[in-house]
Amino acid sequence: MKTIFLSLALIGCCAAYTLFPPFREVLEVHNSLRSSIAKGTYVAKGTKLPPGANILKMKWDQNLEDDAVRYVNTCPKNVSNTDGVGENLYSIMVDESLNTIAAIDDAVNATKAWVATFQEKGWNSNILDKATFSTETAQAIQMTWAKTGSMGCGYQWCERGQWKKGWSRFVMICKYNVRYVWNEEIYKQGATCSACPPPTKCEEVSGLCVGV
Asked: Which residue ranges does the record assign to the SCP domain (predicted)?
């Protein structure tokens, strides 16, 4: 399984963004998963996970989007492994008659599939070690890493007709401001929002830390 993505439209001359519905849903899938874990309601591998004390609510970041666009324009087959930056990649061969929004819808389904896989497989531990990490849950680990507070994505159509006439490879890259770190906690277990890092504060409705 590969990975995820988004992209935003700049409105007029100002720094305000409007997320297209499929992109908004990708962000919502991230924050919904994070919220469920933070509140202690998420069940993975038949076990309810402990609530999270320090899980940030994700927001969109233009600089990460710009970085994602620059990288995805190279039509990569793997993530760039940029130091400190989290990444997820989604790639699929599609009929060129499929419009971009439809392709993005398919990638939205991919993010939901990562969540479903995590729900089935779970983690061995809240500490990210080799026993906990697997290719099947790697995307979910990045999606839920507590200290990650922002993301940005880009997409590109690649290799038009190289594999099959009328087909292209649709690639989407998402970048995250904080990458997961080996041998650290995926999130801090404890009462919901009880350890929000300054200057964030608890958003009671989501159970996530906001303000960064």
From this structure: 21-180
How far apart (Å, rounded) are the C-alpha atoms in residues 139 and 46?
20
Cβ atoms < 10 Å from Cβ of 117: 18
> For 27-49, what is each residue's pLDDT tens digit?
999 999 999 999 999 999 899 99
Give exposure, 142-180, as e/b (b: 16+ Cβ within 10 Å).
bbbbbbbbbbbbbbbebeeeeeeeebbbbbbbbbbbbbb
What pTM was computed for the model?
0.83
| Strand ranges in the chain using DSSP code E only, listed in sequence order | 8-10, 17-19, 43-44, 47-48, 59-60, 86-95, 150-158, 167-176, 201-203, 208-210
Q: What is the pLDDT of residues 167-194, one digit of tens each?
A: 888 888 889 999 999 999 999 999 999 9
